[in-house]
Design goal:
The protein is an alpha+beta fold. It is 35% helix and 29% strand. It has helices spanning 8-24, 57-64, 67-70, 80-96, 143-159, 173-181, 210-216, and strands at 42-43, 47-51, 99-106, 109-120, 127-134, 163-169, 185-196, 199-209. Strands 1-2-3-4-5-6-8-7 form an eight-stranded mixed sheet, with helices on both faces. Residues 9-32 and 221-228 have low confidence and may be disordered.
Amino acid sequence: MEKMPYSAELDRQMIATQVMTSVQHDAPDVVSTDWRNRLPVMAGKQVVLRELRASDAPSLFAMLTTEEVARFISPPPTTVEGFERFIAWTLRQRSAGTYACFAVTLQGFDTAIGIFQLRESEPGFGTAEWGFAVGSAFWGTGVFQQGAELMLAFAFNTVGVHRLEARAAVLNGRGNGALLKMGAVQEGILRKSFQKNGDYLDQVLYAIIEDDWRASQNVEWPKHPLVH
């Protein structure tokens, strides 16, 4: 999900239409859960995913606006205040039941070093798209893989996603490798589908299907457990 769904214009539109959106989003819930009220805290050996907070804005600004990280994603907010608006937007979208965004932190340290996102592509989250951005200082440390494992479990077990898609620029070797490592299957090339710095780039479309993900696990996952 290189093209982050947030923009200042969408923020203004969301404020104006929030009540209407809540009324029109009448697809039946896939599972009884409280994630729309508050995201769960999910912990691995090294990584903790939690809901974003306004106080995360400074660290996210520092981590996600570097040239290495921003190279293959749509332009992130350019100020700390912009990240504060982005965080407020994620909370409204989560309440509307269409989007979830987690802060990536390390065990024992509460500083946000990146984000994982999940966005519905159709009402009810049957098909969804996920994306991620982590500070370059933490590349190659296992942070992405642990966070991604937690995110996939959240998507399939809690939200009830059937098909999980992701896009990565053909030139983004690290992003493509990360998705393949998580079991994503390349399904095609989306020609000139992503604009960056005035150029249109080809993207690879990946997907992970719920049944394939469950078959890859070494444990029996209960389908769609409640989140506490």
